[in-house]
Amino acid sequence: MTETNETVRETADVVAIAEGHVLLIERDWDPYAGRWALPGGHVDEGEMPRDAAARELEEETGIAVPSGELQYVGCWDAPGRDPRGRYSTEAYSITLPELVEPTAGDDARAARWWPLNGLPELAFDHGEIVAAAVEL
What we know:
Radius of gyration: 14 Å
Shape: globular
CATH topology: Nucleoside Triphosphate Pyrophosphohydrolase
CATH superfamily: Nucleoside Triphosphate Pyrophosphohydrolase
Helix content: 10-25%
Distance between the termini: 38 Å
Structural class: alpha+beta
Largest sheet: 7 strands, mixed
Number of strands: 7
Number of helices: 2
Order of helices and strands: EEEEHEEEH
Strand content: 25-35%
CATH architecture: Alpha-Beta Complex
Number of domains: 1
């Protein structure tokens, strides 16, 4: 048996849906700078992934939701899903009653709602995460 000391970084993403649209951010950094992705990011030390998801959503889009209202979608942790190394992402979803105007912040170049039937090519495996959230 081969033993490895691979570092696994923990992240959390949010699939926010309203009126047939999903909220995406345009990445302002590599990898995938300029590509659209789900709001999300690293889980801080001592932080629960659900709380990190709510925090990242607010930091990147200006939209605040209670972390307790986020529904667990699943975990994406396949090797190679992120060119920076091994990342394990817990994804959450929330359905908002209406489209709320986002404000890009933190690491986002832009934030906007995209129609679910007209999504751009997404960074990482975020297309799979959106599809899984829509099926819930």
